[in-house]
Design a protein that fits this description.
Helix 2 packs antiparallel against helix 3. Helix content is 41%, strand content 14%. The protein is an alpha/beta fold.
C-alpha cells in the first residue's frame, strides 16, 4: 500500500493524466457520475502535495490532456470515413485535442495552489477558475464548449432543472464543490462534509422533481414528423447515390399519416441539389404536407457564388419561403482558419474541406399561423447563451444535424445532452432531426419525450408541447453568473497567497 502511495505522488503527471482520462467517462453515454468526486478528489490530494506552482501547473495540464483527449476521442472518427486518405491523422487529432485543450485546466490547478490554506478557499478557487475557463472555451478561437461539466447530470432531467436559474456553468460549479465535499469527508475525516455530500444531490433532485411535476405536459395539436434515413456517411455525398438518397427521404416522408402533419423535418444538408431547381421542387412536393411545410438542411448559393450551410422552409408547392444560414461554422470542418498560410504538406487535406460563408446569428422564422421557431444547424446547439434571439424569442427551436460523421461513438449522445441543457436554460422546446444521430423531441424541461436511436432508419411523429416555452432566470439574466464567478476569483486570489512549506533538509 505504501509503495502504491509513493508511486502515486512520485509520478504525479501520470496520475493526473489517468485521473483526467477516467473523468471523461462522467459524460454521455456512460454517465459514470461516481468518477467525478473520485477523480477530482484525487486531484485535490495531488495539489495539496504539490511543492511548487510549476508542479501544480503540470498536474493541471496532464489532467486536462487526458480529460479532453478521452472526452473528444470521437472527433477522429470523421477521418475514418475516408481512412485511406485521412486515417493517418487520427492519432494526431486525438493527441492534438488533449495537447491544446489541456491548456484550459492549468489555471484551476494553479488557483487551488495559490489560494489560502483553508480547504474551502482552495476548492472555491478551483471551481471558480474551472467555470471561468469553460466560459472562455465557449468563444476563444470561435469556441468549442463541448462537454461542459454540468452536462454530466443530463442522465436525469430532475438534476438539471436548476440550469434554468444559473445555466450549465452553474451546475459545473456545484459539481466541483460536491467533489470538494467528498475530499473533505473521506480524506480529512470531517462528518459535516459527508452529510452535505449526500444531502445536496437529494436537494437538487427534489427541487427538480417539483419543477417537473408543476409543468403541464399536455401536447398541442401541432404535429411534427422527424425523418432519419441513417444514410451511411460514405454514401451521403457519393455522386451515384445522391438521387437515391433524395428519393429515400421523400419515400419515408410520405408514410401513412402525412396529411395530418404540420411540419416534416429532414437533417442537415438532406436536400443535395439546387433548391431553386424547378424539377427538384416538383419532386420534393411529395414530401410536404398539404397545409404545412418541409424544413430541410441544404446548401444555399448566393449571387456571388458563395455557398452556405442552410436550413430552408419549403411550402406545399415545393418553393423555399424562408431560410437560415449557419452562423457558427466548425473550424477545420466547414472552413479552414488561415487557409492561405498553411504549410504545403497540409494543403491537400485542407482542399478537401468546405469553405462556407458565415450567416447572421439568430433567426426567428414565422410561417403562416404556426408558432415562430428558431433555426440551428448541428453543433450550434452546444453554445450556452447563443441559440436564439431573445429580443424576438421563438416558441420552439428546430435543429437539423448529421452525426453520421462520428460513428456509433459518444459524440451523438453528448450532442443530444447539449440540446437538453439548452432546453432547460432557455425554457424552450427543441425538435432535433439528424440524417443519422439521435433525432428527438426535447421539452422545455430537458426531457427527451421521444427519440430515434442512432443507426436506426425510422420516422417519428411527435406533437409539440402545448406549453412550448417557460420563463427562466437564465434566459433573462444569463451573464450574471459569470460576473459573480469573476468576483469570487478576485476576492479569493486577491488575498494573501498560500505559504508552502518545503523540506530542504535532504535536498
Amino acid at each position: 500500500m505504501r509503495n502504491a502511495v509513493t508511486w502515486f505522488f512520485k509520478h504525479y503527471k501520470t496520475t493526473a493524466l489517468l485521473c483526467g482520462s477516467a473523468a471523461a467517462f462522467v459524460f454521455a453515454p456512460f454517465y459514470q457520475i461516481w468518477l467525478l468526486p473520485l477523480t477530482f478528489g484525487l486531484s485535490y490530494v495531488l495539489l495539496d502535495k504539490a511543492p511548487t506552482w510549476r508542479a501544480a501547473a503540470g498536474e493541471g495540464y496532464w489532467f486536462g490532456f487526458g480529460f479532453f483527449a478521452a472526452g473528444f476521442s470521437w472527433i477522429g472518427n470523421a477521418l475514418l470515413i475516408d481512412a485511406e486518405t485521412f486515417g493517418w491523422l487520427y492519432p494526431i487529432t486525438l493527441l492534438g485535442a488533449g495537447a491544446f485543450f489541456g491548456l484550459f485546466t492549468i489555471l484551476p490547478f494553479m488557483a487551488y495552489f495559490f489560494a489560502r490554506a483553508k480547504i474551502w478557499t482552495r476548492v472555491l478557487s478551483f471551481a471558480s477558475a474551472w467555470v471561468l475557463l469553460e466560459w472562455i472555451r465557449s468563444f476563444i478561437l470561435t469556441g468549442f464548449p463541448w462537454n461542459l461539466l454540468g452536462t454530466t447530470l443530463a442522465f436525469e432531467p430532475a438534476f438539471i432543472q436548476t440550469a434554468a436559474f444559473w445555466g450549465t456553468y452553474g451546475l459545473s460549479f456545484f459539481l466541483l464543490l460536491w467533489a470538494g465535499l467528498f475530499y473533505a469527508a473521506v480524506l480529512k475525516k470531517h462528518l459535516l462534509p459527508l452529510g452535505l455530500f449526500v444531502l445536496l444531490p437529494l436537494l437538487f433532485y427534489a427541487v427538480g422533481a417539483w419543477r417537473i411535476q408543476a409543468y403541464d405536459a399536455a401536447p398541442s395539436d401541432i404535429k411534427v414528423r422527424l425523418v432519419q434515413p441513417s444514410i451511411a456517411q460514405q454514401m451521403k455525398w457519393n455522386r451515384d447515390a445522391l438521387a437515391q438518397n433524395f428519393e429515400t427521404y421523400i419515400e419515408m416522408s410520405r408514410a401513412s399519416g402525412l396529411d395530418d402533419v404540420d411540419f416534416v423535418v429532414w437533417g442537415e444538408t438532406a436536400f443535395p441539389f439546387d433548391i431553386e431547381d424547378e424539377a427538384r421542387q416538383t419532386q420534393i412536393r411529395q414530401a410536404v404536407p398539404a397545409h404545412g411545410y418541409l424544413l430541410t438542411g441544404a446548401l444555399r448559393r448566393d449571387e456571388n457564388e458563395r455557398f452556405y450551410n442552410s436550413l430552408f422552409a419549403v411550402n406545399s408547392e415545393g418553393k423555399p419561403v424562408a431560410f437560415y444560414d449557419k452562423s457558427h461554422l466548425v473550424p477545420f470542418g466547414e472552413y479552414i482558419p488561415f487557409r492561405r498560410y498553411l504549410p504545403r504538406w497540409v494543403r491537400p487535406v485542407a482542399a478537401q474541406i468546405a469553405d462556407f460563408g458565415h450567416g447572421n446569428a439568430y433567426k426567428t422564422i414565422k410561417l403562416s399561423e404556426y408558432p415562430a421557431f428558431g433555426a440551428l444547424i448541428c453543433y450550434e446547439i452546444i453554445f450556452p447563451d447563443a441559440v436564439l434571439d431573445r429580443a424576438h424569442k421563438p416558441q420552439w427551436l428546430v435543429l437539423v444535424s448529421n452525426d453520421g460523421w462520428y460513428g456509433d461513438s459518444a459524440g451523438p449522445y453528448q450532442h443530444l445532452a447539449a440540446a437538453q441543457m439548452r432546453a432547460v436554460e432557455e425554457g424552450i422546446s427543441i425538435v432535433r432531426s439528424a440524417n443519422n444521430g439521435i433525432s428527438a423531441l426535447v421539452n422545455p424541461l430537458g426531457q427527451v419525450e421521444k427519440r430515434i436511436e442512432y443507426n436506426k432508419r425510422a420516422i417519428l411523429d411527435v406533437y409539440l408541447p402545448k406549453k412550448m416555452v417557460l420563463s427562466t432566470y437564465y434566459n433573462m439574466y444569463s451573464e450574471v453568473p459569470f460576473y459573480l464567478i469573476a468576483l469570487i476569483i478576485s476576492l479569493l486570489l486577491g488575498k494573501k497567497k498560500r505559504v508552502v512549506q518545503i523540506n530542504t533538509k535532504n535536498s
